[in-house]
Amino acid sequence: MGRGILVVFEGIDGAGKSTQVRLLTQSLRALGVPLRVDREPTDGPHGRRLRASATLGRLSAEEELELFILDRKEHVAGFIEPGLAAGEVVILDRYYFSNAAYQGSRGLDWKEILRRNEGFAPAPDVLLLLDLSIDASSERIHSRGEGGTEFEKRGVLERCSEIYAQIRHPALRRVDARQSVDLVAQACLAEVQLALVQRLVSEQHLTALELMRWVRRWMALPC
Ligand code: TYD
Fold it and tell me: How many CB atoms lie under 10 A from the CB of residue 218?
């Protein structure tokens, strides 16, 4: 296989991204698809500082933006690009659309944030936006026993949600996150399988018969 594909999960806190990342990873591994998975902010030094700032004291919006971008630049160079170059499916729990939504929610120009990120970060091939109302998301955050960090206050989530609603991207798929975990997982897996088949068709000039074999394999049907 040539270049891999980049799959990104986005959505407000409580939308179920982490669960869906785990389920998609398990399904693709079971199909024998080579992959790597990670989250942003990362567990590197900048990412750790950002997570700590959510509980220990908030940075200014500008400082936060710069730190998220630094964290992402290292992530692109050290993890995302190498995975794509090796032909893997790279799965991310949050990416630069969170940068637009969350730092945009603090008054920065979200379109400009997208443009800055697009200057260095590869575009996703599948962008799964888990859609959930603020009420449902707040309920989920609180039922986990979390009071909600500075990133998760209701007003912040409302503004994030408004920004997410305005984002346009060719790879964007909005998934209704009120559905059961299994239905959301099926919808996400189907989108990724479709992108894998499209990639195979465009890069390998498959015959119709070969294509059917691949589709059956991705759909876990006997060949
Ligand atoms: P989150 O995925 O909620 O991490 P955890 O599973 O540890 O709770 O991410 C932490 C917060 O970081 C989240 O509320 C959104 C925020 N964030 C930004 O503000 N900008 C960004 O660019 C990214 C990637 C995340």
Answer: 19
Best substitution site from 19, 58, 73, 102 to test ligand 1's pocket, by max atoms within 8 Å of Cβ? 102
> Cα dist. 205→76, 95, 208, 211, 218 in Å?
29, 31, 9, 9, 18
Record the pTM.
Answer: 0.92
Q: What is the per-residue pLDDT across 51-90, written as a single tens digit (0 to 9) for each? A: 999 877 789 999 999 999 999 999 999 999 999 999 999 9
Classified by CATH at the fold level, domain 5-181 comes out as Rossmann fold (3.40.50)
Give the three-state DSSP class for 56: helix
Ligand 1 geometric centre to CA of 40 (Å): 7
- Ligand 1 pocket, 97 CB below 6 A? no
Q: List the one residue out of 195, 24, 20 whose CA is nearest residue 124.
A: 195
DSSP 80: I
Where are the chain's structural domains? 5-181
For ligand 1, say whether the CB of 98 is within 6 Å of any of its atoms. Answer: yes
